Amino acid sequence: MTYEPGTLEGERLLLTDDRPRRRRRWIIAALAALALVGGWFVFKHEKAAPPPAQSADAGGPNVTVIVPGNQLVDRTVSATGTLAARREMPVGVAGEGGMVSRVLVEPGQWVKAGQVLATVDRSVQAQTAASLAAQIGVAQSDLTLAQSELERAQSLVDRGFISKADVQRRIATRDAAAARLKVSRAALSEQRARNARLDIRAPAEGLVLTRGVEPGQIVSSGSGVLFRMAKGGEMEMRAQLSEGDLQAIHVGSPATVTPVGDTRQFSGQVWQVSPIIDPQTRQGIARVALSYNPALRPGGFASTTITANAGNAPELPQSALQSDDQGNYVYIVDGNNKAQRRNVTLGPVDNNKVAIATGLTGNERVVLSAGAFLNPGQKVTPILRRQGS
């Protein structure tokens, strides 16, 4: 059906067909207005809000840091020296001497205190002892006779057959006989003691080191040393140490000794530290006590490692250390998170760690690695790593 424009029906039809269009236009306009209002609100809010705060560490590279603290540092000192008997005992002739009849021990043999090492011929001295023993018998007989005569005289003096003067003489005779008996006995004891000294004996238990006498040799008190012994078999190493190393050593420091030509290690400890320094070599001696072992031969050469207590000090991994023409240094991170160079003096090195003798207190944040890529004053972002992690 069609209607003419300008007629009533035609106008009504046009109004009916235009309503949906106008409704859509209004919806689109409303949405556009809302979008404009929302955009204006967001723009205003972003303009009014302050910019986000920048981190103090922003812009700096991440670096791992560690706070080393202080640990008890053991210092290892290496040295060389000679082996010797800790207490060497020279043995010689104590008596008048004579011709050696027997030698009963060899070097390397263990002997007890008082054991006979060698004997000197005593044929003449034995005869002298026998003569003195006979004189004791004569003196004893004289004393017995003098005592009997005295007793008879005392029984007769009361009857008037013997005077009191005769009794006194017999008492004197008896006393003289008793004195001669004592002298004879003393002379025999002295001779026996002299004969006993003809036996060359060990003064104490120990190890025979050297033998300097043979059968048939004539010896006397002026013959010098016939045997050398190590008392108790105890050995020692006399380690030559510099002045600086000697300062770190103390009595009781544990040590490990390795003789030349042997792969075995023997444990010991320092028992004496030299109180003086050789003015020529600028060295002193630390004496390391060792237990007896056949491999430890006096006069031999050996090396030792002595563990000394160097005190408390910070310890760092070697990756934290740097060096240049000015010496050794590390980087620390200050309170403003800036890397700062810190010169240090190194102490003992052990187990991939280095003790810091001077330069650090142990409370600093030390850059653990990548220090070679930092510059003094550079801003960094520290990442703390705990000890042992």
What does this protein look like?
The protein is an alpha+beta fold and 389 residues long. The protein folds into 4 domains: 62-73 and 313-384, conserved putative lor/sdh protein from methanococcus maripaludis s2 fold; 78-86 and 233-309, Beta Barrel (Elongation Factor Tu (Ef-tu), domain 3); 89-119 and 203-232, RNA polymerase II/Efflux pump adaptor protein, barrel-sandwich hybrid domain (OB fold (Dihydrolipoamide Acetyltransferase, E2P)), CATH 2.40.50; 122-197, Helix Hairpins. It is 30% helix and 34% strand. The protein is built from 4 helices and 23 strands. The protein has helices at 8-48, 123-157, 164-196, 243-248, and strands at residues 62-66, 71-85, 88-91, 98-103, 110-111, 116-120, 199-201, 206-211, 218-219, 227-231, 235-242, 254-259, 266-273, 283-290, 301-313, 315-317, 322-324, 327-333, 339-343, 345-350, 353-358, 365-367, 381-384. The strands form 5 sheets. Strands 1, 17, 18, 19, 22 and 23 form a 6-stranded mixed β-sheet that branches. A 6-stranded antiparallel beta barrel has the order 2-11-14-13-12-15. Strand 18 (327-333) and strand 19 (339-343) form a beta hairpin.
Tell me briefly what this model is.
30% of the residues lie in helices and 34% in strands. It is an alpha+beta fold and 389 residues long. It has four domains: 62-73 and 313-384, conserved putative lor/sdh protein from methanococcus maripaludis s2 fold, CATH 2.40.420; 78-86 and 233-309, Beta Barrel (Elongation Factor Tu (Ef-tu), domain 3), CATH 2.40.30.170; 89-119 and 203-232, OB fold (Dihydrolipoamide Acetyltransferase, E2P) (Beta Barrel), CATH 2.40.50.100; 122-197, Helix Hairpins (Orthogonal Bundle).
